[in-house]
Amino acid sequence: MKRLSHYRRHKAVAPLLLVIALFAIGTTFNVASASMKQSPSAFARSTQIDEGKQIFLKGCSTCHGLNLEGSAIAPSLIGVGAASVDFQVGTGRMPVADMSTQISRKDPVYNEEEVAALAAYVASLAPGPAIPTDAQLNYERDGSTAEGGELFRNNCAMCHNFAGQGGALTQGKYAPTLMGVEPKHIYEALVTGPQSMPVFSDKTLTPEEKLSVIKWIKAAEAEPNLGGATMGRVGPVTEGLLVWILGLGILIAVAVWLTTRAR
Amino acid sequence: MTTVEKRLGAAANFVDERLGAAGWMKKSLNKVFPDHWTFMFGEICMYSFVILLLSGTFLTLWFDPSQRDVIYEGVYEPLKGIKMSAAYASTLDISFEVRGGLLMRQIHHWAANIFMAAIVAHLLRVFFTGAFRKPREFNWILGIVLLTLGLVEGLLGYSLPDDLLSGTGLRITSAIVQAIPVVGTYISFFLFGGAFPGVGFLPRIFTIHILLLPGLFLAVITIHVMLVWYQKHTQFPGPGRTEKNVVGHPILPVYMAKAGGFFFIVFGVTAFLSAVASINPIWLYGPYTPGQISAGSQPDWYMGWLDGLVRMAPPLETHAFGHTVSWNILIPALIVPGIVFTGMAFYPFIESWITGDKREHHLLDRPRNVPNRTALGVMSITFVLISLINGGNDIFATQFDLSINQIMWFSRISIFILPPIAFVVTKRLCLSLQRADRDLVLHGMETGRLVRMPSGEFAEVHEPISPQKRFILTSHEQAPALELPATDARGVRRPGALKNKLRIRLSKAHAVAVPKVSAQDLKEIEHH
Predict the structure, then answer these.
(1) Does the predicted interface ipTM exceed a cut of 0.85?
(2) What separation in angstroms does the CA of B60 have from each of B53, B54, B101, B160, B381?
(3) pTM for the full model?
């Protein structure tokens, strides 16, 4: 011991200790990761849930925690259900690119199979709303456009605008446009209430009513522009802009022309 | 004389012997109108009013102004079987089942928008050129009356179809009426025939929209135009143009041809817009029920600035003696517009009080030559524009990725800051332009040609401007500021000292100008 303390202030000690520390960390990591590879019995099952877990650990666990418990910047995913995962990941909102005001829709990072695996994994840990099946989503058969419109104006239009074009919420948040959203995702959004949106449980809107809303949204999407160019279906603001720029603009140009003296 | 001439002569004689119209016609047809493109705004208003009358009449043939409930059984699939008012159902029928109905609806609505826009443009032209000065103050007030009528007529018009958007507008209207202290709730009850939405409102505003207000419009427009006729049109200054003459084309044939042609052009542009651009697609809004609302509900643009003022008002309410006063509605929706419109109506008198100028004016001002007025105008435009932007704050927020709160705070602060800044900047710009005019007259136009002097010095050649242009740049008068001595000749203090002080200060500010080039200046220049 005394000899050791004798060399304590030797100039080679600091680099040596560093090398030892690095070696120790490297070995520990190597052993740990090797032990993960070495236990195939727990992970090698080629199930969907398993794949989902792999994707989750790689892509999601940084924020949502290794066990879905969430963190300071991301909510817990326990009990959110497959529907929530399918909506968030399927519409590209997750994994998130920009967390400033609101997580916005973008091209999905994962393909359909990966999304399904993720959903299955999250759903396997705690029960939650399931992804609606194609049979449940037959809105063409089970929905009614007119009723859906009435329900939409009662429940959705105050944020998403009368034609589903989206609208502003407070502090830079917004209700996104509903044009071009898959029926499955609309249904899931209704059931899970992502971000600022409330949950529309089956007591608030029955499954048939949800299908009617979807049918109306799809009708609004396919709605021809009956009166000519619509300028965004956002009401009189763009109409006012057009009347000043085009309407009065043309008339002023004509007035200038009319009062030009012949040369 | 050919036979045609003979026949025409006989016909004219037939009329003249019975109506005695020849003398009046001879005088009127020789009436001269000055030419300038900004003088056409009033005509746009008049022509779109005619378009509104025609298309409106067409719409009344099918419109049913009733709030009675019906179940829609028409051709528009997404609304089939929905309960709605007969007014809304009949508007759907006009849009989808009456031949040309949708086009007519859109013509009516676009024409209304063009009407209001042209009124505003017309008003700005008259204001900035000082055309409202004596003897035209009454006609200016009539113009303000027409503008106000237009706002109300427009609001009633887009409220009639009873769609979700218009019902929302009426809900706000009823709230504004209720904000009048003490009597507001009663007035709202009388207007709507009970608690909102009531049962009788649509038929009432229908009568007002198609009978009372158009009648008033016709009467006021007639007086407005007759006064222009009688007082003659103003003209821009120029060689040969004085306060005593009017230089331009006689009514026949040139002016008539141009004006008549312009009517068809206005109609054509309106029809073109209506054919290619959708306006007020009520079938998308759905029928009105008080429980529903859409995001991004906006009034038409001419009401938008009022909506914007209401949107930026902080939540202020007081309760006293069992009454609630909603200052947050009362101030932006009633008091501020009250001040704006009253101020506008009285402006000609205010200005002549400031300048002490009681003479008649038929020659227009170039806006730069009256910096104070021009600055006041730009300041008002800035005020309205900020309000208008805040009126569409939700649309701006979504379209430009902004926060609605930021836009609101921006307008709350800038509504007080930007208009005064606009005033100062405009006034300085006007003075700079005056300085530029002065330079132009004194030194001529820059030609861009550089010459080298024998001494080796380089100089740019300036060309003298034409005498016409020089006249235009120097013909305006620069009245000195009012002088009101504090005491009269006998040393007695004048009454109203404070008022006089204010008047002198305003007059001083109004008279600020870059001295224009005088004849003497020019002579001196020529000697050099």
Answers:
(1) yes
(2) 11, 10, 11, 11, 36
(3) 0.88
